Amino acid sequence: MTVTPNQTVVTEFILLGLSSDPETQLVLFVVFLPIYLLTLLTNILIIVTIVYDRRLHTPMYFFLSNLSFIDVCHSTVTVPKMLTDFLSVEKTISFWGCMIQIFFLHIFACTEVFLLTVMAYDRYVAICKPMHYLTIMSRRVCLVLAGGLWLGGVVHSLALAGMAIKLPYCGPREVDNFFCDVPPVIKLACADTYIINVFIVSISGVISVFSFLVLVSSYSFILVTLCNHFAEGRHKALSTCAAHLTVVTMFLGHCAFIYCRPSITFAVDKVVSLFFTAVTPLLNPIIYTLRNEDMKRALNKLMGRKVDPEKN
Q1: How many whole angstroms separate alpha carbon 24 and alpha carbon 3?
Q2: Where do the coiled-coil regions begin and end (predicted)?
Q3: What are residue 15's DSSP bridge partners?
Q4: Residue 12, beta-bridge partner list
Q5: Per-residue pLDDT at 8
Q6: What does the pLDDT read at residue 291?
Q7: Where are the beta strands (DSSP E) in the chain?
Q8: Coil, strand, or helix at residue 204?
Q9: Which of 67, 122, 281, 287 minimizes the number of CB atoms within 10 Å of its CB?
Q10: Residue 173 domain-assigned?
Q11: 23, exposed or middle or buried, with CB in 10 Å at 0-12, 13-18, 19+?
């Protein structure tokens, strides 16, 4: 995979984006700028609230604060560039800018998959083994799990970005997306990428299947436990688990849809990726946290409002 002397080395890529129509791009800018700002506001507010309120210093909220941090970073990797390109005639990105975007995109995406899996296990322990919850999910265990999922994300990202960087790029420069990702970028390489495509499908499949099995097992045990107990608190637990499972299914569904067939491109790919990078980071705090009564009370306290301790 060497570049011959008569080949031109690509120094920048052109992002085709979501649309080439100026009016459509302006509408998209007006729509997604507030979404991005709300994503930053809600997730940062959640992190500050959890740090501020000592009653939220529990394993569940520790992982939720990690999720909010990841969502801020995940959306920031792609959305600001997308918003800038909506107002630009030329949507270019340097070669190294593209590779850096791929690297951080996969760190946060893969880490979030692992985190959602750990959060499902945390809910399983809390509901099915409540008497041993604080022993099993001790501070040390939570820190080890957090370190492990971040390490897994870094290793996964290094592998994918490393392969993309080593490929020679000497021909077409147009990336058929609004951000750099491994599948559309390696299609531009002047080399056979069959082995890399097989690796992407394999590693994405393993991660998705493993996470799916852990999630299904955790929530299956949770449902069995809830069915065997009194109705008190059952509705709240079922509602929480259903919301969590919905988010996880959407997230894993995107990973399977995009990365388990990287050599094939569908017209809907951009829409799926847009939802994944711009909308999901805003939905996560709403589904996971802002519907939670403990979080609502903590937010009211943080904002200086009077909180009724008897309520809920």
Answers
A1: 39
A2: none
A3: 175
A4: 94
A5: 57
A6: 66
A7: 12-15, 92-94, 174-175
A8: helix
A9: 287
A10: yes
A11: exposed
